[in-house]
Amino acid sequence: MMDSRQIDLTFMALSDPTRRAILARLAEGEASAGELAAPFSMSQPAVTKHLKVLERAKLITVSVDGKRRPRRLNPVPLGEVQAVIQHYQEIWDANFERLDAVLTELQVQEIQGD
Fold this sequence. Notes:
- The protein is mainly α.
- The protein has 5 helices and 2 strands.
- The protein has helices at residues 4-14, 17-26, 33-37, 44-56, 76-112, and strands at residues 60-62, 71-73.
- It has a two-stranded antiparallel ribbon.
- Helix 1 (4-14) runs antiparallel to helix 4 (44-56).
């Protein structure tokens, strides 16, 4: 069973393009906060706030390596979100299949002059 609060935190974290860009960077490998902040034209504290949101959503983990605190992508919450989206995709697919069947039936009736 999926934790509703965790899914809310994940969706909220993913709602920001900067946070999605950080996750995309971390998909390539671990990085420090400074490395993650480099491509953005915002202050280090602003990037740190984004990192805290991602940590709270458990989308990234932090470890200690001497003075370095590398961040890593944690794909588990993304898998839970994917399961939610897949559930709704299956519902929509079933609805479209029923609609397609109705439209096909109407076309057949029109061709037959019913």
